[in-house]
Amino acid sequence: MLTVSEFRYCPKCATEMISRIPSGDNRLRNECPACGFVHYINPIPVVGTVAVCGGKVLLCRRAIEPRRGYWTLPAGVMVAYETLAEGAFRETIEETGEAVRVDSLLCIVDVPPANQIHFFFLASFDALSATPGPETLEQKLFTPEEIPWEDISFETVKVALECYLQDLQSGQHQVHRVCLRD
Q1: Number of domains the chain contains
Q2: Of the candidates 142, 129, 175, which has an alpha carbon nearest to the alpha carbon of residue 52?
Q3: Residues 29 and 91 grouped into a single domain
Q4: Percentage of the chain exceeding pLDDT 70
Q5: Which domain, by its residues, includes 12?
Q6: Which string of DSSP letters, residue by residue, matches the chain?
Q7: For the chain, how big is the Rg over CA atoms in Å?
């Protein structure tokens, strides 16, 4: 589905943007008719961890919308100048207070309808001892059998947990690739 953002005015010259396919391009974009600036819309990278302690997975109950009160993995939008792993580490500390050891990449989840790509890393830590951050109502360790599937916040979180459990069951680690179109 071709869409353009609500980017209405040119950030260079303040002329109202128009939607068209720029010369030499093949996609509809917002372009400035006065100075030629093109606003490219790129996917948003989201990073997080499946943090494990003693065979249990750390989940956080969300204190913010969307999906306030539902369980999630520590994750969020990357910031400029950090690597994927650095972003996953930062998000985990911000939401849980736990300074985990970020291990290998677990899964990549493409979410075209949201214009996002989610990267989840395996992580480990020794004890649940920190106080969660302001985005978390509570945090808890769950065995695989205890995961509250009906109260998981987002489909991408379910996918990451399923990838972790699949690797746990098979005894082999692989990087999973999943695309969620709906």
Answers
A1: 2
A2: 142
A3: no
A4: 97
A5: 1-41
A6: -----S--B-TTT-PBPEEE--TT--S-EEE-TTT--EE---PEEEEEEEEEETTEEEEEEE-SSSSTTSEE-SEEE--TT--HHHHHHHHHHHHH----EEEEEEEEEEEGGGTEEEEEEEEE-S---SPP-TTEEEEEEE-GGG--GGGBS-HHHHHHHHHHHHHHHHT----EEEE---
A7: 19
Task: Give dist(CA 55, CA 141) in Å, integer.
Answer: 9
Which residue is associated with the tokens 């950030």? 11
Query: d(Cα 22, Cα 36) in Å, to the nearest integer?
Result: 9
**pLDDT, tens digit, 9 for 90 and up, residues 13-53:** 999 999 999 989 999 999 999 999 999 888 999 999 999 99
Closest CA to 156 of 124, 114, 102: 114
Q: Are residues 31 and 53 in the same domain?
A: no
